[in-house]
User: What shape does this take?
Amino acid sequence: MSAKAPSYWKANQRRLAPWLFLAPGLLMFAVYVIIPIFQSMWISFYDWDGLGEATWIGTANYAEMSSDPNMVKSFWNNVIWLVLYLLAVPAGLLIAIFLNQTVGGIRLYKSLFFFPFVISQVVVGLIFSWFYAPNFGLLYKVIEFFTGKGVAVLADPDLVTYGIIAAGLWPQIAYVMILYLTGLNNVAPDQVEAARLDGAKGWKMLYYVILPQLRPATFIAVVVTVIGALRSFDLVSIMTNGGPFGSSRVLSYYMYEQALSEYGYRMGYGAAIAVVLFAIMMIFISGFIWKMWRDETER
Amino acid sequence: MFPRPIQQSSPAAQWLYKLALPLALILWLFPLIGVAITSVRPASDLAQGNYFGIPSYLAFENYSNVFRNTPMGQYILNSFIVTIPTVIGAVSLSLMTGFALAVYKFKANLLLFFLFVAGNFVPFQILMVPVRDMTLNLGMYNTWYGLALFHIAFQTGFCTLFMRNFIKALPFELIEAARVEGVAEWRIFWFIVLPLMRPAIAALSVLIFTFIWNDFFWATVLTTSPETQPITAGLSSLNGQWVAAWHLVSAGSILAALPPVLMFFLMQKHFIAGLTLGAVK
Assistant: This one.
């Protein structure tokens, strides 16, 4: 027996080793990420306050959702987030092109432009709350100066979501910028020179020569921007708590509010909202994974 | 190089570019600069309506007030207590998972890899109720380790993607040669691959440090009291107490932003290398 064990190990080492290396990470990931996804789906069919007995109510949570005006509002706000957040991609590219020079101190400029991404969204939210603050906020003052009447962005139900998105775009543009700066650094110089000899310049050069080479950077920029837009929670929570009158809620925030805030502990309904958000996100995630899968198997 | 180097343009254009750079930067960072100035503006200035002028003096007492009258010191400490074990845990776990997925060929390989990648993208809300419930049941609610364990598990997804791609790019002949010599697999991991992973470990460590330090959602879901709350959650609750005391809010914000900013400046090369992995082919 004692002689047999090591030989079994020796013979099968290469087959067993990957599973031993994977075990701790995979276990943690399964317990905290994979299994909870299915648990949430399960909970979404119950009426549960998180403490007492859970009651099976079938699809009642989903039925309630379809006629819940707050849910509809949150969903459309998410759509606005998604569309406007994608502006970060061209904006980041523009700044990257602006900064892609070799003059003195340019490295410091690049780092400082990247700054907003490094700081917490909580801090970004507070900074923009100050920027928007009625009566003394900088933006309020500027608008007052030009039009004679200030606008309290975060107190206006029609503007509040745009105000929060603008705050979110700030770090997001910085992130996209750094992706494109790295991409521009690796554009093949001979191709650029050849195109220049052919008389290409400006927008034509960008569109036909540069952008195709930046495709990997664009892919990652779109992925992180879409995920970022759908994950938006911190800014809404810090800047408005979903207000005024719930007009700046997004799905991620509304879910939290239903499940955990002072409005009550409706875990089942919260889980159902999370499942909807997850389903929306899965559309995009599958797309990304499909593309990555194709790249992987082509190699 | 694109765009055309500015040195090839007319002197006027070069002059204009060098002027535009600092102007654009100031415009870009305007809100941040405003908050930095507000953080050293004395409360009396705000009371008199001096919001934008030069502060009548540099009120560093705002910072000492924040430390004296709020648990800010404790919050900062809590953030470190959660962040550092998370960095160590997630990096160690993903070194192993990344190694397994990069070096061995087995059926479930790609499937597992994409499971990690996809899991890393899911919305936090789909995990919230079960993870909170489990943490409560295990008696880890409102403790640093309850929060850190979740972070380690979740970050393992992103870290595995990173480590696996990094190891894939190493010369595979090294491993082949060792195998021919009869070196055991765990020794290959420990003595051959690990020493080559230093840049990846550095890049991931600074990234994860920043991500976890800046996390707000899980801090609010899994911790409740000032004894365990990290600075993001702490700052949010202080913001509720300091109604419109913007000099204090600003000072608190600057304090919360400082550690990741320092981390970024000290480890800039690694930070950007980590963040832009995959942005070039």
